[in-house]
């Protein structure tokens, strides 16, 4: 995933948390901060998916993962994805109107 | 019938084991971006389902020869919706190939299609349809629905199951 610089004021507590995490993970503070940000981004994506405000394909693009990974992520968060019952009913009606070939 | 597919719809149809059967009765239209999302990215990350899908699509999928530029129209219609590249491509194919429906199980994508009056199919609706037309047996339909269960919402699962139960009752009379 490409990265861009972005000026941001970060609360002191989060910086200290990043410091602790960087020591635990043997990495630098910037990497630790990015990991914390990414974890938050995953939560946010799952919420948007659950609310039907983001597609699975776009979610995969935003997190730079595959669609299969998005399914996995949703499962880990206990979130169900997919069409609603109302959408299923509409799809069922569509299917009944279609003519099959062969 | 011509059906423009997104990766989500394809992955779930393959998981349910009904993609091959459906492909015998419908023309499945798949663009290169959707193929990349459903097959190549899944394989690269070690998901075995992507291998199954690759095998099926090699035989049954059709890639439209020319993806004409209808992106402006698509972008205009779906300006308020955050779609991925694969979903945009499926829409583009729907318009250019004058398909009958879009196959997807993505709530946000389906809401956008619904708002524009574009017909769509979900994998659960397809499997019930196949059972209604006796293109698969009821036993096969129940099995397919169970395969699909972890990937779909409970309310959709329950509704599809009710439809299969009604079908079972009718066929036993």
Explain what the structure shows.
- The complex is a heterodimer of chains A (102) and B (173).
- Chain A is built from 5 helices and no strands.
- By secondary structure, chain A is mainly alpha-helical.
- Chain B is an alpha/beta fold and 173 residues long.
- The radius of gyration of chain B is 16 Å and the shape is globular.
- In chain B, helix 1 (7-16) crosses helix 4, helix 3 runs antiparallel to helix 4 and helix 9 packs antiparallel against helix 10 (154-172).
- The model of chain B has no long low-confidence stretch (mean pLDDT 91).
- Chain B folds into 2 domains: 2-122, Rossmann fold (3-Layer(aba) Sandwich); 124-172, no CATH class.
- In chain B, helix 7 links the parallel strand 4 and strand 5 (120-121).
- Classes of the chains: A mainly alpha (102), B alpha/beta (173).
- At the A-B interface, helix 3, helix 4 and helix 5 of A face helix 1, helix 3, helix 6, helix 7 and strand 5 of B.
SSE map:
The complex is a heterodimer of chains A (102) and B (173).
Chain A: H1 12-25, H2 29-50, H3 56-63, H4 67-76, H5 85-97
Chain B: E1 2-5, H1 7-16, H2 19-25, E2 27-29, H3 32-44, H4 48-60, E3 61-62, H5 71-77, H6 85-96, E4 101-103, H7 107-115, E5 120-121, H8 123-132, H9 138-148, H10 154-172
Parallel strand pairs in B: 1-2, 1-4, 2-3, 4-5
């Amino acid at each position: 995933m490409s990265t861009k610089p972005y000026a941001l004021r970060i609360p002191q507590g989060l910086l200290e948390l990043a410091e602790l995490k960087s020591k635990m993970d043997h990495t630098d503070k910037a990497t630790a901060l990015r990991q914390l940000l990414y974890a938050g981004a995953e939560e946010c994506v799952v919420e948007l998916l659950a609310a039907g405000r983001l597609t699975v394909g776009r979610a995969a693009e935003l997190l730079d993962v595959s669609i299969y990974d998005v399914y996995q992520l949703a499962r880990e968060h206990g979130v169900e994805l997919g069409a609603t019952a109302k959408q299923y009913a509409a799809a069922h009606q569509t299917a009944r109107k279609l003519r099959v070939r062969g | 019938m011509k059906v423009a597919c997104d990766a989500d719809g394809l992955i779930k149809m393959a998981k349910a084991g009904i993609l091959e059967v459906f492909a015998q009765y419908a023309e499945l239209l798949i663009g290169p971006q959707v193929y990349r999302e459903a097959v190549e990215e899944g394989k690269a990350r070690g998901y075995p389902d992507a291998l199954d899908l690759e095998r099926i699509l090699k035989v049954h999928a059709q890639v439209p020869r020319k993806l004409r530029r209808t992106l402006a129209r698509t972008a205009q219609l779906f300006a308020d919706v955050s779609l991925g590249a694969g979903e945009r491509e499926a829409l583009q194919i729907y318009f250019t190939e004058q398909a009958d429906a879009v196959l997807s199980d993505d709530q946000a994508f389906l809401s956008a299609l619904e708002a524009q009056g574009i017909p769509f199919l979900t994998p659960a609706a397809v499997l019930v349809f196949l059972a209604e037309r006796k293109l698969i047996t009821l036993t096969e339909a129940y099995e397919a629905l169970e395969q699909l269960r972890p990937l779909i919402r409970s309310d959709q699962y329950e509704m599809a199951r009710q439809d299969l139960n009604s079908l079972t009752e009718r066929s036993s009379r």
